[in-house]
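Run: sequence + flavin mononucleotide -> complex structure.
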Amino acid sequence: MKILGLSCGTKNGNNDTMCRVALEAAKEMGAEIEFIHVFDWDIKYCSGCVACSRALVMGKGMVCSQKDDYAALFDKMAEADGVLIVDPIYESGGSGLFHVLCDRMGPGHDMGMLMMADGMLKEQGKGGLDPKYLKKKAISFVGIGGSDWAVRVETDHAMLAMSPAWTVIDNEFFSWCKDVIMQDDKIERMRQIGKNLVEAAKDIENAKWLGKPGSCPHCQGNNFYIYPGTTKCVCELCGLEGTLEVVDGAFKFKFDPADEPKAHDTLSGKKMHGEDIFENEGRLMNLFKDPEFKKRKEHYTAVCEATPSPSKG
Ligand SMILES: Cc1cc2nc3c(=O)[nH]c(=O)nc-3n(C[C@H](O)[C@H](O)[C@H](O)COP(=O)(O)O)c2cc1C
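>> structure
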């Protein structure tokens, strides 16, 4: 039983410390623990080259054009039974570093795509992907803020679990927390989050959400895009469409249960999304040979040159 804690905060700052608080509680329960201060690792931006999704779709396995520590970091996550990510709240959401982790997790680690690639590799007699990449996993998130601007952070954080389809156990955020290690209720909550993760990882088949019920009954999300002038909305996390209606004095998110298989965190939803992407990528490939497409591309490219970076040259 191994619990891996990642912190995206400053070195030995609040996020590192609170991550260690949860890890200490996990260790007391008998778990092996490991801590990574993510800024210590060389993690580059996603360049947007889509080599990862192309390689998976073509049955070539897991590929990334960025040469850095991300593959090793993902291996650490894949090998752990439970992952905890503690992240400073920036601009009411996840930090820039966290968003980089999210992008790098992106399509190249999507469980639907991994399962498809695994099947193709086996068909080619190549033995499939390492089973650790297909393992179910428990993950929890904690956002720590210096003020009370925080309402986007839960959705940002849970988004990281969406791609690999890992089960979110707790998704917490703490406000007004510059002095968090002196706030005993937060320390206690952090310890509980560590313990919950160990229990969930021990029985991963039955692991489930242990936080407060969210406004979206499907994914526990609390953020919605509301189409202006309507009651129609979309859950920003799982993508289910429905309406927000007041029932017994509270907003209730109602959706057609027949739409649930389309949710982004279900394998059926991932399959539908994958097929749509495949179709769109195919159309783009054909357009590269289209004279009108080439003409437009040349025209707009000639409008202006990009200014070079002053430091990169
Ligand atoms: C760029 C930046 C943006 C921030 N935005 C927010 C914010 O929107 N809400 C908030 O509560 N705290 C915000 N903070 C405060 C950080 O959350 C706080 O400094 C951090 O949790 C400290 O963690 P550390 O000690 O681990 O580095 C911001 C800090 C920085 C540097």
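>> summary
Residues 9-10, 13-15, 88-92, 144-147, 149-150, 175 surround flavin mononucleotide (CB under 6 Å). The mean pLDDT is 96.
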